[in-house]
UniProtKB/TrEMBL annotation:
Chain ranges of the Hikeshi-like C-terminal domain: 157-215
Domain of life of the source: Eukaryota
Domain Hikeshi-like N-terminal: start-end pairs: 5-134
Pfam families: Hikeshi-like_C, Hikeshi-like_N
Annotated family: Belongs to the OPI10 family.
UniProt name for this protein: Hikeshi-like domain-containing protein
Length: 222
């Protein structure tokens, strides 16, 4: 269902089902890989054909040696891949040399990191994402870690979204307005084509960035 890439290493495909059920419908999975060489980011993604059950997300956790699992991001059907920045503990040169000596002597005691993936209800994952962003000092969910939240979950009301759409249209169309009276005393009018151009541009931006209206300071020019 999932795969992981660490820069400079082979793609990880040896996933283990942690809670294998008799019907084969596991919901928790794990990857195990060496802590070294050092890495500061990883990529988690769906394999082709993977579709999560409705209203669920794939929560991603990481466990370094000697620590508990920590939530670091999530995937969903709307966000099938994610680049996640991480901060593994640094090892000293002496520790690395000891590990290489152990490997050379046939001792397979390499320090291992476990990446856990758990399929959970979106209602459970969304608050964890919000808390993660708050811990990172940001009020907005980054594109790399996004399980798409509804406006209500992100605190943006329908009224605010409507006001932003209207403001976006007004700012764009204002530059096309002209007077219906050659003397300049008539009412301002806007060519129909200008509205069509705004809608085309607005629709393209929604497709490219579905959450731009939900951010606190959306672009004023559409």
């Amino acid at each position: 269902m999932f795969s992981v890439i660490l820069p400079g290493r082979p793609c990880l495909t040896d996933i283990v089902a942690v809670d294998a059920q008799p019907n084969g419908q596991a919901t928790k999975f794990a990857f195990n890989f060496p802590l070294t060489p050092y890495f500061s980011e990883l990529v988690v993604f769906f394999l082709p054909g993977t579709v999560l059950p409705q209203d669920t997300a794939a929560a991603i956790y990481i466990q370094y040696p000697g620590s508990d699992f920590r939530f670091i991001g999530a995937l969903a059907n709307e966000k099938p891949s994610s680049i996640i920045k991480v901060s593994p503990p640094r090892r000293t040169e002496a520790q690395d040399e000891d590990q290489m000596l152990d490997a050379g002597s046939g001792n397979n005691s390499a320090v291992v990191v476990t990446l856990g993936i758990s399929i959970e209800p979106v209602q459970v994952v969304a608050p964890q994402l919000a808390a993660l962003e708050n811990d990172n000092g940001s009020g907005a969910v980054s594109g790399n870690e996004l399980v798409r939240l509804t406006p209500q979950q992100k605190g943006v009301t329908t009224k605010v979204l409507a006001q932003r759409i209207i403001g976006n249209a007004f700012n764009f169309l204002a530059s096309f307005s002209g007077s219906s009276d050659p003397s300049g005393r008539g009412q301002d009018v806007v060519p129909l084509k200008a509205f069509q151009d705004w809608w085309t541009k607005f629709e393209r931006k929604i497709n490219n960035d579905p959450t731009f209206l939900e951010r606190e300071d959306p672009s004023a020019n559409g």
